[in-house]
Structures are given as C-alpha cells and as structure tokens.
C-alpha cells in the first residue's frame, strides 16, 4: 500500500495460459475458509484471476485495523492501490473488476470514487453508501454489539475498541462521517456496476440508492450502464436457494449469481458480446403469499428505472390496535407503553431477522401492533414505504422502531421490514433536537423498500416499540451525551403514539395506480390498431394528467409499430450473418413502470445492430465478413430506432453509407477493419447524435471529415492504424467536443501537428506517427484538459518526453517502446500531478530512475526492459511511500 504496509491475499488462477483479467474482493471475513476457497476456485474457472484481499489489520494483513475507513479516499486508499497493483502483474491483462457483498459492497463504492485507471466494472450485493446511516448507526440508533464482534477479526482487538470509541465521539452526522459518505460523490463514480438488493434486508435502501445515484448522477461510463436486481433474499450472502429463513418461495426466486457474474465480467473485462448490457436495467421480484394456490405475486418484473410509478396510500394507526385507510376522527386518541432500557424488549441477533414469524416480538409486553381487517382483495405495495408518527414521551430522548408484517390467515406474522429512529434526530442527523416531555412531536422516516402483494384474506400489520436488544442498543433516555459506556443513570419512560384527527400517525405505502389496467387496455387496443377502443379506454382514465401523458405518447408508439416489420427482418438477417441485436422496451420509463413490460412488448424497437464476426485479418484470424456488404446495408435504411451500429470487419467499402446516413439517432458507429475510404463519409453529415466513432484499421485519412463538421456530439474517435495525414487532422479538428482521440500508427507530420492544439476538450490522447518527430508533442502543451497521454512511434523519443513534461495537467503518461533515456525521464519528473507512468524499454539507468523521486504524486510505475538496479528501485520507493513498481 502507499504507506508501505502489505495486505494478505489469496489468488486463484484459471487453467491454461494467461494473461487474464483479475476480479478481487476486499473483505474482513476469513479468506481461508473452505466455502470461500471453493467459491473462488469455481469462479476462476470462468477465465479470471480471483483475488481475495483482507482489510489492513485483519487476517494476515499488516497495518492497524481501521474497518471500512482504510478503503476510502482520504489518506489511505487500499482499494485503489490493490487495483493498480493487480493490473501490473505479468499474468494480468490490466482489466480489473471487483465483487462482493455487505462490507465488500461498501468497499466497491469507496473504490469507484478513487477512480483507479484500471477498474473496469463492479458487481455488488447488499451494499451501502454511508457508514453512519447503514453501518455504525441505523436511524441514529447505535448497535455496538455488531461492531464489538469485529474485535475477533482485527489482528489486534485493541484497534477495534479504539475505532468504536472514535465513532462514539461523533454521534452526529458531522464531517467525520460526511467525508466518507459515498452518496455525496456519485459524479466521481465512472464504471458499470451490477447491484443485487434483498427485500429482507435493511441495507436494501443502500443497494437501491447506490443504483439510482450511479445510474443518474455518476460519470459518463456509469450513467445508464447500471443494472439492479432485487429478490426475496436475506442480507450478507448470495441467494443459494428459494428457501429464505422460514419462507419457501417458488423455484423462480433463485438467482444463479456466479453464472451471471461470469457473464457480466466476460462482457466488461474480455469484450465478449453476450448481450448482458441489453438486459433490463431493473429486475425485481414481486413477493406473494407462499403455500397458497393461485396467490398473486411471486413473479419477476422488469423496469427501465427505479422506483416504478406508484401512488402513495395511507394506512392510519387507530385505537384498539386497528390499521385502516380511513382517516382518524377522534379528537383525542393514543396508545402508550413503557420503554425500559434496563429491561428491553428482545430482537435476537445482530442482523435483520426478516422472512420470519414476528409474533415472538409482537407478543412482548411493551410492543404495540396495529392490524388491518382481513383484506377483501389483494393489495400491492411496490416502492418505498414511509412512516409518519406523532409521538410523545416522558423522556427527553427515546427511540421508535417501526416494523411491517404480512399476517397470514393462520396467524403467522411474516416480517417484511424494520427500521428505527432516534427522536433527537427527527429533524436531521447533523444536529439534535431533544423532546419536550409530554409534548407531541412528529417523526417521519423511510421504513424500507419492498414489492409484495398481500393476498386476499391476509392482514397488514404495523408494529411499534422503543427497544429491541441486542439488535439495537437501548436508548438511555436521559437526553445526555451518547457514550460507548451505557450510563448508570438511564431512565425508564412512558412513550405514546398519537392517532387522533389532528395527530394522525400513518404508514405511507406505494400502491400501483388505479388507472394502470385502463392504460394497459389502451396499449392493447393501439397494438391491435383498434382506434375506437383506444379512444374509449383512454377516456375512462380518471387522472386527467395521466390521460394527457398517455395521449401524447400514442403517435410514437404508432411509429414503433410501423418499424416493427422492418426491424424483425433486419434482426433475422443479422442473426443469419452471425450478428447480435438488442431491442428496447417501447415507450418512456414512466409508461413502462405504470403499465409493465408485457403491455409494451408490441412496441419494442430495434436499437443495436452488431455485425462483427470476431475475425481480425491483421492478426491472422479469418478474413472479412463477406456476408455483410454495402448492398446488405440497404435493409437498415430509415430504421431510425437504431442507436448503435457495428459493421467492424464487414465488406463495407462506401456506397452503403448512404443508407447509414438515414439513421438519425445513431450514437455509436464502428467501421473498424473495413475497407472504407474517405469520399463516402459525406453521407454521414446528418448523424448529429453520434458520440463514439471508430475507423481503426480502416482506409480513411480523415479528409472525409470535411463533410462532418456538424457532428459536434462526438466525444470519442478512434483512427488507430490508419493513413491519417495532415489534411485529415485539419478536418478532424472541426470536432470541438472530442474528449478522447486515438491516432496511433498513422502518417501525419510535424506540419499537421498544430491542428491538435485546436482540440481543447481532449482528456485522453493516444498519438503516434512514423512521419513526424517528437516536436509534434509541443502542440499538446496548449491542451489544458489533457489527463492521459500515450506516445508511440517517433513521438516516443527524448524530444517527445521533453514536451510532455510541460503539460502540467497530465495524470497518466504511457510511452511505448521509445528510447527516451535518462534525459527524457528528467523532463517527465517535472509533471506536478503525475500518478501513473509507463516507460518500458526506455533505456533508462539508475540515474534516470532517481530523477523521479521528486514526483511525490506518483503511485504506479512500469519500467520493464530497463537496466536499473534493485537498490535504485528501493531508494525510489523509500522516497515515494506506497509507489508500486513493475519491472
């Protein structure tokens, strides 16, 4: 690690000859356990090096136990350092993934924020974002028994005691917790992640919010690239069967995690085109009654986003333990009980006891339950369940635990969710406001996410209590400081739940819209072309705003139907040619959420067409895909639903581009390994939504970009191994929003290099030409946003290194195969923010290596093929603690 400490790790290699991508898990659990070893070895058979790494101070890892805090983005970045170390090993391809659940889920969110250059994708289960909200405290309530147990994990148990004492010195959500709250740093996360959430887990909130934040607020490689699945599972482990605690669900509740994880990483780490990213963004299991014939629910649904559309419905707490949708009418009504921290009610264990009969807790003396009458018809809740409690107490501070259960006709009360709230934090966790004894106060908080259909004849139950040990440490109820030692002057209190007309306590449940069946009927009629039925059903939709929103979508849905025959024909032809396709559910996300994917299935649109057959003639692997040529492309003309088209290694020479030019919504277009030339690029001038554009190993010089000046959305352009020349560079420079450009093994000269200075949005540039010199790099000094630079061909020279040393914004510099020698390294040493440097085969000596000692920001250095001594490397690592050197 960067401070010189070493972490213990177990590595599991696949059979055969590498290199392979690596997937690692950070954990405090014993990595030597038989179960861990078997699972890792099985996972490795998929063609990955699996690495299990212990936290510092745990297992055989060196350093002081700091729990999760060693994983974050402060002084210690163990996750970052591990990722970059793995990427440089000779058996690794340099592509890194991470996986794991619970604490290993936290670790992955922390890691993503540090932005390791080699981190490509993640796979998380039951993850969290805030160590305050979902770790050391829940709802402001402490649970030290859970974290005292970690003393058995720490190599020195005293470290865990010190850490616990430290956390208790910060009872509020202050800078100690904010500084490592992942939810405040989504924009820094920039990799795809697959997240698994569990309905029977209080951390389901963290899993859901991690997905939402990454999907909508994160970096460009993260937004829209997240997937979420939530099932009827418990916390802390991958679902291994359909039997969950005391519940036995249908076999469809089982999810093959390792098989899917292998598919996920095959795509992201190996480039396998297996369609995993065309799967729905959200899959969730709608729970239903088990053991009851024809009970609704126990099915999977999909959604484009989370949460699905729902209407809030209130269930009010009433006197005599009643729960009802009717608003209370009594002027005064309340229920009281005793909260005794010396004799707390019992919730055994240190983890949420979901999917079990909750009657043992509900029957305890100081617990109050509110239950509906048997339901006359099924009731669905899908989304976030909230609570508003009007309470009072004889104490200045106390806790309230709220639980929701599904009560079966035989009396079983199956616990769905449970969440506490400390009264002093009712207005926010960053400050406290104590209760005034006897004066009513409102507590409003989230209880949890769910998707369940309560069957006819079942009852819904809400349970409230103020103690539940040892899961939650009892509140001393003094209103005084919160210390790790339980105070001797703790107080017994009488707590009251109010349920009157003015002080109405309630559970707020997310219920599907009553108009949803009518909207489905509208969609069915639209698919059948029955316009009279469309109008009749639409006029019955009660919500006028919803009615108008649906009406506005009908023309687009009609267009989708019009494209369907063409799209199906293209799909069939593509598959015959060995290609892959992807379809998108028709309609906007809100309509999918409301009506469901089945109702919109007739309106699916073809969005992606990948015709690359996997061959690469330049590497002696097959020839051109002659099944796809310019004439073949006539099939796609006018198919404007397409956003991605890949004709890599197809026999596309140019005339067929007139058909591609009609695809006005294309965002990605790949001509790699095609015999395409410049004159035909004129047909693409109207593709103004293109973002990613590749001509690698094609025959284009770039001069055809004279016709493409309107393509200002292009941010990633690849001309690797092409005849790009000076005239071509001039035309490419028209693209003012380029962030990444690859022009390696090309043919521009020093005279054309000034055109590069016009591309001021560039963040990464890969450059190389045998027809230019190192002087070309001088033009790059003007690029103030450049973060990564790769120098190849004749730019990988002492002169190129000298000019690169004058680009202060550089974080990553790769110089491939060029003899920059000690002279070149001395210039690189001037870069003030350099973190990663690759100079293999640069012909440097110990003197050149020592010049890097002043680059205190350097974290990773590759110097393969250079004649430097062990002593010189050791001196450099002593000067830059935590530097990883690969020789």
**Continuous helix count:** 21
How far apart the termini lie comes to 17 Å
Task: Report the helical percentage.
Answer: 10-25%
Sheet bearing the most strands, described? Answer: 13 strands, mixed
Structural classification: alpha/beta
At CATH level 3, the topology of the domain at 9-129 and 189-303 is Rossmann fold
Computed over alpha carbons, the radius of gyration is 31 Å
CATH superfamily of the domain at 9-129 and 189-303: Alpha/Beta hydrolase fold, catalytic domain
CATH level-two architecture of the domain at 9-129 and 189-303: 3-Layer(aba) Sandwich
Describe what this molecule looks like in 3D.
- Among the domains are: 9-129 and 189-303, 3-Layer(aba) Sandwich (Rossmann fold), CATH 3.40.50; 311-511, Galactose-binding domain-like (Jelly Rolls), CATH 2.60.120; 761-887, Leucine-rich repeat, LRR (right-handed beta-alpha superhelix) (Alpha-Beta Horseshoe), CATH 3.80.10.
- The chain is α/β, with parallel strands linked by helices and 887 residues long.
- Helix 18 runs parallel beside helix 19 (821-828).
- The model has no long low-confidence stretch (mean pLDDT 92).
- The radius of gyration is 31 Å and the shape is globular.
